Model the fold of this input.
Amino acid sequence: MSHLDHVERSGTLKVSAKLVRWALGTAVLTAALGVWGEALYAADPPCASCHTEAQKLEKSAHAGLPCEDCHEGHETYPHPANIPKPVCTGCHADQAGEYVLGVHGQARKNGNEAAPDCGVCHGGAHDLLPPKSQAFHAAEPDTCGLCHAEEAEQFRSSVHGQALASGVSDAPACADCHGEHRILKPTDPLSPVSATHIRDTCGSCHGDVRLTSKFGMPSDRLVSFDASFHGLAAKGGSQTVANCASCHGVHNILPSSDPKSTVNPKNLPQTCGKCHPGAGERFAISQVHLVDGRAEPVPLRWVRLFYLVLIPLTLGLMFAHNTGDWIRKLIRRRFGTSRPQVRNLSPRELRMLPFERIQHALLAISFIVLAATGFALKYPDQWWARPFLILEGVGPVRSLLHRIAAVVFMAVAVTHVVSLIANRGLRRHWKDMLPRTSDARDAAGQFGYNLGLRSISPLNQSGPSHRYIQKVEYWAVVWGTAIMASTGLLLWAHDLALRLFPKIILDLATSIHFYEAVLAGGAIVIWHFYSVIFDPDIYPLDTAFLTGYRASSEEETTEDVKFEEQKGQEATGQSD
Done:
């Protein structure tokens, strides 16, 4: 190779190396420009160069959504003409469906173009606030106030509005009570502020233990309302009984310490007077929300404690007495070895005259209706209570039946008293019901016999036709009738009672009426039903209420004959 060729080849190599370095540099520069271009595009997309809405979008609820999700043909420039504007229903179909069913959607459907739509409440699509944000929540009174100015002004001055304005995120705003998209009229049964749902709507906050504890609110308001007549009637389906809003107001809710509050002690006569004319005229209306415990008035506490001792003690003794009697008679009848012997019995004993049998039938029917309709108010969720409450939304069917039965029950009681005064024969017939000192001895002796502490029953001895068992039934009815009638009439005439007496009188009447009903119902089932149905010597039924004569058997066991013989010997002094 010549020197000239070597020089030429060396020059060619140098040129090739420069070309390679230039190509590599160009590639690196191109890559760097590409990365920088992508970052520049992301930070300042092409839409932002013409549309300022793109900058607002970054702070709105739609931040992060690309433009093409809502705008068709945005990538074509210039944009094609007649491109349809985006609609909210494309992404928010569920909310749109609820809106159509609400009062606002129905108004627009009927041609009212002034009715609010999505944009009126939420703002523009590019700068709307997140619905869950505190800023959106706090702005609800102003938003709704565009159409509902009076209600919004009342709300701002209320305890809820003041809390919301002070930044309390848990304070309720318009949508918390009325709903969000499916806003219905208060008269609509499905509305959260209707009479049927207002308790649950208010209870979502006032029944929340976390919220009541956080803000120091009374935690028993929902419980006490549910236990009151108003709460029980509302739960049973009544559309006219007072609810939370009836007393506390709707938008103008204020604490009871505020002189302007509808539940301020000075304003209670006017508030309660809307339903109970004249309430609180003579005496100030006392505590409204009542809950068992230390917070309840002292008289109510003593009444409750008295019956909580009396009811279990009375019914427990009745149950023990009859259980022992049933076991003794069962053993004697099922496992006794003696054979029955026939005795000559005296003529059947007349227990109930025809006039009395009619009274008994009316008394029994009215008592059953009273018990069923009365406990249906107290326990409206029970299956047996539902038939009495089916039409409660239409009218006060349950209370009407209860009062008709009460009139019949009291009429029977009055008729019985009048008949005893007017009829000497009937009065002589009922003298056997007067208590005697021997009744206490018989009761103690029979109780000991039923419990296996004595071998002889005092009831097998000769004596009056009516013993302590019948007398307990009779005087229990007399006592129960007097108590139930007096307290029931007071509750029936509640408007007059609130006008003449302190509210505590009605509270006491309510408590006594309920506890007496429990005691009476238990006594009928445990004591009376046993003596006329489940007693082995009577089963399956004592038909005296149908025939007037006491049920009797033509057979008596050898044990009973021996007992009578033994008692006869004792009477003549021949017993060992």
Observations:
- The two ends are 164 Å apart (CA to CA).
